[in-house]
Write a structure and sequence with these properties.
The complex is a heterotetramer, with two copies of chain A (about 260 residues) and two copies of chain B (about 290 residues). With about 260 residues, chain A is an alpha/beta fold. Helices cover about 35% and strands about 25% of the residues of chain A. Chain A has helices at about 45-50, 80, 100-110, 115-130, 145-155, 175-190, 200-205, 230-240; strands at about 5-15, 20-30, 35-40, 60-65, 70, 85-90, 160-165, 195, 210-215, 220-225. The longest helix of chain A is centred in the C-terminal third of the chain and has 16 residues, at about 175-190. The N and C termini of chain A lie far apart (about 45 Å). Chain B is an alpha+beta fold. Helix content of chain B is about 75%, strand content about 10%. Chain B has a four-stranded antiparallel β-sheet. In chain B, helix 7 packs parallel to helix 10 and helix 9 (about 215-250) runs antiparallel to helix 10. The longest helix of chain B is centred in the middle third of the chain and has 42 residues, at about 160-200. The two termini of chain B are about 20 Å apart. Classes of the chains: A alpha/beta (about 260), B alpha+beta (about 290). Chains in contact: A-B, A-D, B-C, C-D. Chains B and C meet through helix 2, helix 5, strand 4, helix 7 and helix 9 of B and helix 2, helix 5, helix 7 and helix 9 of C. The structure holds adenosine-5'-triphosphate (ATP) (2 copies) and magnesium ion (MG) (2 copies). One adenosine-5'-triphosphate (ATP) sits at the interface of chains A and D.
C-alpha cells in the first residue's frame, strides 16, 4: 500500500499557445506522502496541480491519479476523480452566493452524503479552522484569511485520498498557519497524500519531508529529508512547540 | 441520484431563485412581457377566427321562386329541397317579406325601388346548410342542384360576398399565420436567450461546482428546475396581465371571449417546458455535454 | 472631460462590445426579436390604416336626378353642385350607366331587376368630396344641402356603409391602440431590462472602476454608448428581418407597403435613445447617482 | 510638510450589524511615513484600510485623508480622493476583461492622462514588477503571483500620495518579495506615505520602521523603531544585500 503511487506524471509537458509552462515533468507521489512544492512566481506550480485534478490536459505525456489515466479519461469520469481529491485553490474559488457552511458542504453534497453526516463533518471541520462562528456568513463578509480557511475546510471535509493545497497560508498569520499546518499533518498521518505549493520557506525549511523545486516549468530538484508522512510522534512534537512558536526565526513579529 | 441529493437539488433551485433575486426578477419581467404579446396575439386570433366562423355559419342560399306558382307547387318545392342532404333548414320568404328585407339591407339605397308601383321582388326560400357543406365549392354544387328544381327561377348564394369573404378569411389566416410564426419564434428565442443570460452570470459558480466533483446532472438539475419555474411564473404573470387588459377591453367590445381553460393550461405548460429546455440548452454549451 | 479621456471612452465602449461578445450577442438577439414584433405591428397598422384611408377617400355621394329633366336643367344642377365648397369633382351617370353599375355591384343579385321591362334606375351625379369634408358628420350636412337643390330627388351617401365602416374603423383603431400600447410598453421594458441584465454581469468591473477613482461619468459613458449601439443595431436587425418577411409577403399581398423612410429613421433613432436611456437608468441604481 | 498628517483616524469605530470590527481607533500617519500593519486573521486590517479609501464609512468617529474629511464628504468627491491613494487589494481586484496593460493603465485613464504619458509610465512600472513580457495577457492567464504584481503595479502607477498595500506579498516568492519591497521603499523615499498590512513577519522584523498591531479591532501597539521613511542611504543598503538574500533566516528554502 505504502509503495503504490497515487500520483504519477510521466514526461508531462504543457504549452499554452506559444508559451511552455511545464517541460518533461516526471514525478511520483506515494500513497500518504507529504510533498512541498516550491519555486518562483510563475514557475508552473499551480499548473502542475491543475494537471492532477485534470482541469487542464497535458500537451504531451500523461498523468496517472489513482486508477485514472489522463490519456484515456472520459469527460464524465472527471467528477469521480475530483471527489477523491481535495483542492485548496490559490484564489479560493468560493461560491459567492452561498454561506460558509454551504461552501464547505458542497464537496459532500456532490457525493450524495446524508444531511446528518454532512452537518456533522462540516461543523467539525469549521471548528478546526476556527470559523464555526461564521458559518452563516457569505464569503464577501469574510476577511482574506477567513476565506482561505473556508477553502481549506472544503478541501479536507471529504477526507480525500489526495490533498492539493496551492499557497494555502498566503493570507494567514503565523498562529493560524501553524494550526492549519497541524491540520494538514494530521490528515496526512491518517493516509492522505498531500501536495502543497507554497512560498513560505520558513515552513518548508522546518517541516520539509520531501521538497520539489520547480523553476520555469522544470523540476530542478526533488529531495527527501524526513520520512514520507507525518507520524503521530512527530505530530505530538509539533503540537507541543506550537504553543509558543513553531518558526525557527521566532516567527511572529517580535512584540 | 441518491434521495438526499435529489431533495437537496430541488431545495437548492428554489434557494437560488432567492439568492439571485435581481437577475431572476429582470428575467421574469422580460419573459412575462414577451409572453404577454404572445398571449394577446393568441386572444386576438382566437376571437377573429371565431367571428369568421360565426359569419360562415350564417351563410345561407336563396332560391328565388318563379312568379305565379300555386301554394301547392311551392310546398312541393319545399319538400324536395328539404330532402337534399346538404339542407339543414328552410325558411319561406314571401314577396312582401322580401321587400322588407331588401329595404333593411340596402337602407336608403332602396330608394330606387320605392318609386316602382308594383313589388318586383320574387318570393324565395332561405336555405341553411349543414356543417361540412359550407365550403365555397360545396355551395356552388348545391346551387346548381337547386337551380335544377322546377319552378326555381334563380339561386343566389351571395357569390360575390362569399368570394370576398373567403378571400378576406384567407388573407387574414395567411397574415395571421405569418404574424404567429414571427411572434412564436421571437418568444421562444427571447425566452431561451434570457435564460441563457441569467446563466451566463453564474458561469463562475458552475465552474466551481465542476471543480469540486459535481456531475453534469448535479449542476443542470437546479438550473432546469429554475428555468421551468421562470417559464411557468412568467406565463402566469402574462395571463394575469392579459386578464387585466381583457377586463378593460371587454367593456367596449363585449363580444370578445377570453382564452379557454384548455388553451391556457397548454400555454402555461408550454412555457414551463420552454423555460427548462432553454436552461438545459444553455448549460449544454458551458458543460460541453 | 479631457479630450484624451473622451476618445478613450468611445474606443473603450466598442472594445467592450468585443470583450463581451457572448452577452452582447444574446442581448442584441433578444432586442432584435422584440423589436421585430414591434416593427411587424407598425407595418400591419400602417397598412391597415392606409387601406382604411383609401376606402374613405373613395367615398362619394350620389345625387339621384328626378325623371324627365332637360339636358339644360341637369347642366344647371351640375354647376350649382360644383360651386359648393365641399365638392372636389362630379361625374354624371346616365340611366343606362346606372343599370350597368348596379349589375356590376350586386352581381347575380341583380337578377331581380332583369325581369323588369323598363329601366327603373334614375340618372345621378357621383360627387367626390374634398379632403376634410369626408367625416361622417360633414357628409350628412352636405347631403342635406344637396337634397335642397331643385330637381334632385334623393341623395345616397351609403349611410349604412359609412356607419358600418366608421364603426369598423373605430373598433380597429381602438384595438390597435390597445395592442400598440401593449407592444410598445413591452418592448421598452424588455429592452431596458435586457440592457440591465447585461450590466448586472459586469457589476464587479464597475465596482473596481469606482475603487480606482473613476467618476460616475467615466463609468457611465461607455455603457450609455454601448446601450445606444445595442439599441441601434437591434433596430436595424429587426428592420432587416422585417424587410425579409415583407419580401415574402408582398408576393401574396401585393398591396402592402413597407414602412416609409421617415418612420424607419424615427424608429431607429428611438431605439438608440431607448438603449442608451436603458443603460443609464440601470447604472443609476448601481452607482446610486 | 513632514509633520502634516496625510491620514488621521479619530475615535473611529466600525460595526456590521451585530459585529464590531474596529473599536475606537486613533491613528495618524505622517506625510511620507512607512507603516506596517500586523495582526491576526480577521483583526480588521483590511477594514481599516477600506476606511481610508472610503469604501466603507465609519459607524462612529471620523477619518481624515489629506483635505478630505469622512464626516462631510459628498459622494461625488470620492473619486478625487481615491486618485490620491494607490491600493493593492488583498484579492487583487483586477478587471478580468482587460489585459495587464489596461489593468494598470486604468488608474491613469480615470485622471485623463495623455496616451503617451500612460504608455510611458505603465511600461516602466510593468518592467519594475517583472511583467513587461505579459502586458497583453488577460489576468486569468496569469499565475497568482503575477496577478498580485499587476495589482501592485496599478497601485503605484499614479505615484499616489498614499499607498495602501493589503498583504501585497502573500503570493510572492522571497526573491520577488524583495524586489517589490524595494519598489515600495523607493516610492516611500520619494514622499509617498505607505501603509502595508502583512502577515510576513520576517519582513516586518527586518524593515519595521513603525509597526501597528491590530487585534480584534483594537490597536494594541503602535511602535516606531526606525526613521519615518526610507532614506536613499537605507535603500542602497537594502539593494546591496538583496542580491543574496534580505531575510534574516536566509529567506529562501535552503537549497
Ligand atoms: N491559461 C493560460 N494561458 C497562458 N498562460 C498561462 C495560462 N495559465 C498559466 N499560464 C502561465 O503559466 C505560467 C505558470 O503559471 P502558474 O500559475 O502555474 O504559476 P505558479 O507557479 O503557480 O506561480 P505563483 O506562485 O505566482 O502562483 C505563468 O507564467 C502563467 O502566465
Ligand atoms: N461586510 C461585512 N459584514 C460583516 N462582517 C464583516 C464584513 N467585512 C468584514 N467583516 C468582518 O470583520 C472582520 C475583520 O475583517 P478584515 O477583512 O478587516 O480582517 P483582516 O484583518 O484584513 O484579516 P485577514 O488578515 O484575514 O485579511 C472579519 O471577522 C470579517 O468577518
Ligand atoms: Mg500559483
Ligand atoms: Mg484582510
Amino acid at each position: 500500500m505504502e509503495a503504490r503511487h497515487v500520483i504519477g506524471m510521466y514526461h508531462l509537458s504543457k504549452r499554452y499557445e506559444d508559451r511552455t509552462v511545464l517541460t518533461d515533468v516526471n514525478l511520483q507521489v506515494a500513497n500518504g506522502e507529504f510533498v512541498f512544492l516550491v519555486g518562483p512566481s510563475g514557475a508552473g506550480k499551480s499548473t502542475l496541480l491543475r494537471m492532477i485534478y485534470m482541469n487542464e490536459s497535458p500537451t504531451q505525456g500523461q498523468v496517472v491519479v489513482g486508477s485514472f489515466v489522463s490519456s484515456n479519461m472520459k469527460r464524465r469520469q472527471i467528477p469521480y476523480l475530483r471527489r477523491k481529491i481535495g483542492v485548496v485553490f490559490q484564489d479560493f474559488k468560493l461560491l459567492e452566493d452561498r454561506d460558509v457552511f454551504e461552501n464547505v458542504a458542497i464537496a459532500m453534497r456532490v457525493t450524495g452524503e446524508t444531511n446528518y453526516e454532512i452537518k456533522r463533518r462540516v461543523m467539525q471541520v469549521l471548528t478546526q479552522v476556527g470559523l464555526y462562528h461564521k458559518r452563516y456568513d457569505r464569503p464577501v463578509k469574510l476577511s482574506g484569511g477567513e476565506q482561505q480557511r473556508v477553502a481549506i475546510a472544503r478541501a479536507v471535509v471529504n477526507s480525500p485520498e489526495i490533498l492539493l493545497a496551492d499557497e494555502p497560508t498566503g493570507n494567514l498569520d503565523p498562529d493560524v498557519t501553524a494550526e492549519i499546518l497541524q491540520l494538514l499533518f494530521r490528515i496526512n498521518s491518517s493516509g492522505t497524500a498531500v501536495l502543497m505549493a507554497t512560498h513560505n520557506h520558513a515552513l518548508v525549511k522546518n517541516f520539509g519531508q520531501r521538497i520539489l523545486h520547480l523553476r520555469d516549468g522544470v523540476i530542478e530538484e526533488d529531495r527527501r529529508v524526513g520520512p514520507r508522512r507525518f507520524s503521530r510522534e512527530r505530530l505530538d512534537e509539533i503540537s507541543m512547540t506550537a504553543g509558543k512558536s513553531i518558526w525557527s526565526d521566532d516567527g511572529r513579529a517580535d512584540r | 441520484m441518491k434521495l438526499y441529493q435529489g431533495l437537496y437539488l430541488i431545495k437548492e433551485s428554489f434557494k437560488t431563485l432567492g439568492r439571485h433575486k435581481g437577475i431572476m426578477f429582470l428575467s421574469i419581467v422580460i419573459m412575462s412581457l414577451t409572453l404577454l404579446v404572445l398571449a394577446v396575439f393568441l386572444l386576438v386570433t382566437d376571437n377573429v377566427l371565431s367571428a369568421l366562423e360565426r359569419t360562415r355559419q350564417e351563410l345561407s342560399v336563396y332560391a328565388y321562386i318563379e312568379e305565379g306558382l300555386t301554394q301547392n307547387d311551392i310546398e312541393q318545392q319545399y319538400k324536395k329541397l328539404l330532402a337534399m342532404k346538404e339542407v339543414e333548414s328552410i325558411v319561406f320568404i314571401s314577396k312582401a317579406e322580401a321587400m322588407t328585407e331588401f329595404e333593411e339591407e340596402f337602407g336608403e339605397g332602396s330608394a330606387i325601388l320605392e318609386s316602382l308601383e308594383s313589388n318586383p321582388l320574387p318570393a324565395s326560400f332561405r336555405i341553411a346548410l349543414k356543417d361540412g357543406y359550407k365550403e365555397q365549392s360545396n355551395i356552388r354544387l348545391f346551387a346548381e342542384q337547386v337551380t335544377a328544381v322546377s319552378g326555381i327561377e334563380n339561386v343566389d348564394y351571395g357569390k360575390e360576398f362569399l368570394d370576398r369573404f373567403s378571400l378576406m378569411a384567407r388573407v387574414f389566416l395567411y397574415v395571421d399565420m405569418i404574424l404567429g410564426f414571427i411572434v412564436v419564434l421571437s418568444s421562444v428565442f427571447i425566452i431561451s436567450n434570457t435564460v441563457r443570460l441569467t446563466i451566463l452570470s453564474r458561469q463562475k459558480s458552475i465552474e466551481i461546482l465542476k471543480l469540486v466533483g459535481a456531475t453534469n446532472r448535479f449542476i443542470t438539475t437546479p438550473f432546469v428546475l429554475e428555468g421551468a419555474f421562470q417559464g411557468g411564473l412568467a406565463s402566469l404573470v402574462s395571463l394575469a396581465l392579459l386578464a387585466l387588459i381583457y377586463l378593460v377591453v371587454v367593456k367596449m367590445l363585449p363580444d370578445i371571449a377570453f382564452l379557454d381553460v384548455q388553451t391556457s393550461v397548454l400555454y402555461v405548460l408550454t412555457c414551463i417546458v420552454l423555460g427548462s429546455l432553454g436552461s438545459f440548452a444553455a448549460l449544454r454549451r458551458f458543460l460541453r455535454l
